[in-house]
Amino acid sequence: MKKSILDKLQVLADAAKYDVSCASSGLNKKNTGAIGNSAASGICHAWSSDGRCISLLKILLTNFCVYDCEYCVNRLSNDVDRASFTPEEVAELTIEFYRRNYIEGLFLSSAIEKNPNYTMEKIIKTLLILRNKYHFAGYIHVKAIPGADEILIHQAGELADRMSVNIELPTEDGLKLLAPQKSMKKLFLPMNQIKDQINQSKYELSHFKNAKKFVPAGQSTQMIVGATNESDFSMINITDQLYKRFSLKRVYFSAYVPVNKGGNLPAISTGATPMIRENRLYQADWLLRFYKFEAKELLDKENPNFDLDFDPKIMWAFRNIHEFPKEINKVSLNELLRIPGIGLVSARRILNQRKVRNITYEDLKKIGVVVKRARFFITCNGKYYGEKNLEPETIKNILNPLPPYEQLELRINQ
Ligand code: SF4
């Protein structure tokens, strides 16, 4: 029976919930003579029960797939309800939802229908209708389909704000095991192309008035945590390399959700570990991007996984306890950022206040420092406020480990 557009929406919005590589952050856009403004901060209306998404219409163009990745609900060999939007339908839905103020933009992902070029052409046609027929100037994030021709990736990049290629598994071995139709080489090709063309576009825009924008909000990727047996060390190393090699805006992590059984997939009995690991990887990613940590400082071959009870920054401090305590009134911004309990905002506030006068221990709370943690690692005007015995085990026993995380279920339209 032919599916209505609403039936398709149900199938393809549900199928998109496993893709977490969307966030509308990173782009402020105001338009005159067109519709669609977007704000740099993304907000989430639906999709996951842990609030990880934003006010984008998040759908797959199709869940018909010619690939058979073992971890994926849409794999060729699965007997699931299938649907495929036409480009006109996606454009119409986006505009109708936008006009009703339900969404700010569109996150359009897709399985691989027929072949990569066919799918990429459908994505481009959707964007052309939105941009040219409806004059929609809002935020659009689309997938670049690995294996599609360069010219198609280029066309999509001139119409989209952000593009992403999902790596999904961090190593060639992992891909061979669970997604043998994919390879790192095939995945890296479009990522490299997007990076080069973003750079070229930036150069042209700075020299020529009418130069075209190309993926102005940058590119991102997603990796699944726990579908293969790669360690956190391996995950965080490849994350670091991806940021450096492809100038990615974000690497998203998605805790493995066992939607299929058997084959080479891991048996996950409690379901809890991947979610905690996902959280730790996001914390480590934050340290790489904003705190100037190197991946090799956070983990190594002897300690290949993050501690499940304590976050990566405090674990780094425990391993380097000989560097503490640090005098809050003397250390540099980079040193402040390495003190547990001090974040970016509080570190800057400390520096600003130091220009006027020395910081007292009482000031720290007002500044936003988490004194409960920081007190073990600092002195304030020469005075130490932690325990006499500056041993990691003592501090661990005093600091309550974070409460165990519950595995959150992915739900839709809650
Ligand atoms: S190509 Fe994408 S949609 Fe198709 S099976 Fe693999 S992960 Fe799923």
List keywords for this structure.
6-stranded parallel sheet; 15 helices; about 425 residues; TIM Barrel; binds iron/sulfur cluster; about 10% strand; alpha/beta; disordered C terminus
What does this structure look like?
- This protein has 15 helices and nine strands.
- The longest helix has 24 residues.
- It has two domains: 287 residues, Aldolase class I (TIM Barrel, Alpha-Beta Barrel); 87 residues, no CATH class.
- Helix 4 packs across helix 6.
- With 414 residues, it is an alpha/beta fold.
- It binds iron/sulfur cluster.
- The site of iron/sulfur cluster has 9 residues, from loops.
- Iron/sulfur cluster binds next to loops.
Sheet bearing the most strands, described?
A: 6 strands, parallel
- Strand-residue proportion: 5-15%
> What proportion of the residues is helical, as a percent range?
25-40%
- In what order do the strands lie side by side in the largest sheet? 1-2-3-4-5-6
Bound molecules: iron/sulfur cluster
CATH topology of the largest domain: TIM Barrel
Weakly predicted, low-confidence segments: 23-28, 38-52, 407-414
SSE class: alpha/beta
SSE layout and pairings?
Blueprint: H1 5-15, E1 56-60, H2 87-99, E2 105-109, H3 116-133, E3 139-143, H4 150-159, E4 162-164, H5 172-178, H6 184-207, E5 219-225, H7 232-246, E6 250-255, H8 273-290, H9 295-298, H10 312-319, E7 326-327, H11 333-337, H12 344-356, H13 361-367, H14 371-374, E8 378-380, E9 383-384, H15 392-398
Parallel strand pairs: 1-2, 2-3, 3-4, 4-5, 5-6, 7-8
Antiparallel strand pairs: 8-9
Helix pairs in contact: 2-3, 3-4, 4-6, 7-8
Bound molecules: iron/sulfur cluster (SF4).
Residues 65, 67, 69, 72, 74-75, 111-112, 179 line the site of iron/sulfur cluster.
